[in-house]
Every structure is written in C-alpha cells, then in structure tokens.
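Entry type: protein chain
Record version: 2
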Amino acid sequence: MRIFLAGLLLLFVCSGCRDAQNDKERTPLLEVDGYFLYKEEIDAVRPANQSSEDSIRFAEEYIHNWLEETLLFEKAQSNIPDGVDIEQMVTDYRKALITHIYQQALIVQQLPSEISEEALNDYYEQNKKLFRLEQPLIQGLFMKVPLNAPQIGDVRRWYKTFTRDAVELLEKYSYRNAVRYEYFYDKWLPLNEVLNMLPLEEPNAEQYVDNNRHIERKDTAFYYFLNVSDILLPGEIKPFPYARGEVKDMMLNLRKVEFMQQVKADLYEQAVKRKRIKYYIDAQNEKVD
C-alpha cells in the first residue's frame, strides 16, 4: 500500500513536468468499486507555491480522506432506511440551492446596503424594546501602572474626577508611566471586558461595580484604577451607539424579506397576466371554475 501511495504521490508531484495528451481526459489515481479519484481533482484544490514535501503531505492526506469518505458513502448507500426518498431530497435541495443563490445575487444587485443614520435612529426609537441588554455595560476610565511608578497619590485623585483637566493630566501621565490606559467615558463597553483588565475578586462583580464607582486594586506588580461614570444593567435598553450594528442588521434583514416578497408577488402577477398558470383540480379533487 505504501509503495502504491508513493507512486500516486510521485505522479501528483511530477504532474506539472509533462503536458497532458488531451485536456479533456482525466488521469485516474485510484478506484474503489467503480468510484475513481482523479489527479485533476487534487490539482484543483492544491494550495499554490507548495514545496515538494508539502505537496506530498497534502496529497497523501487528501487521498486518505477521499478513501474514508468514499467507503462511508458506499456503506451508507447500501443501508438507506426504508421510506427515505433520496432523489426527492436531492431535487428539493437543488431547488432550494438555486433559489437561494439567485436571491442573494438579486439582493446584491438591486437592494441598497446603506441605510441613513436618520432611518437607523428612527427604527431604534420605534423599537427600543427589542434592544435590551443581556450583560451590563459601563462607561469610564481605566489605568494600569507599575507599583514603583511615581505620583501614585496624584493618580488616585485624578482618576476619580471627570474634569477635562484631570483627564489631560492622566493622559500625560500614562504616556510616561502607564502599562495600559483606556478612556471610555464616551462609549459603552461590556463590564466583563473591563473586569478582565484588573484583579477583582468579588462574588457579584456587577453589583459591586454598581455600588463602588471608584475601584483601586493592586497585585505583586501593578496598581489598577477604574472609574465608572455610568452603568447599564441587564434588561435595560441598549444605547443607540452600542445597538447601532444590531439595528442596521435587523433593518437590512427586514428589507431583504420585503424585497423578496415583492419580487415573488411581481413574478406571480406576471405569470397570471401571461396565463402561464393552469389549474386542473383543487385539493379536494374538484374542478376549479
């Protein structure tokens, strides 16, 4: 088997060194009960610019996987449960696949993907109840500095205030001393994402942060400072800036549904107008007037 595979792999690797006698012909590599694997199938999926060693490894793995899948298919084909209509399933899947591909192409060609900010905001305002938080969000400021950093007393005062002067002092200080500095007074971040930045051992971190807006911690190497200016808890309405992406996706999906409903309605009307639809009997086997 190893010698046979080696021969197949050699044929695969050296295939680029000779011209095919006929472009329409395919070169079989191996057969399992009438199922063939062709060299051209491997060539079509082989990554470009591979070394000879990588090509051999890729071909060997491809051949092994093909053999396993073919043997499994052959076994499954002879053990299909009674009552399973494979041909009908294939027909239904083909119909659904063709329809899906056409719909996607039609949507890309004819349905604009851009939505104005005014439209997004209007939809959000009209449907706020659809956008509820599943996890808490916070706004604030975070800083991480080494234990030997200077002016720790000043940092303790500055990080607790929201004034522009205090923020500017912290920003200047962070350039020289901070390992990490995050300013998010103007945007919402998931609480868990922020808590991952500092060592906070609390059984109910959400409640703790809600009750303690100025948090300082330290470990063997760093001080951690977190100032929480605002917090939103699960169940509350997501702020528009945070929900904007979700709002846009929802609106686009609705527009796609409405667009395709209109396409189908138009096709139906055209078919009726051109008398392409012929009714023979109804569901009760009665003639339709």
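Comment: The two ends are 71 Å apart (CA to CA).
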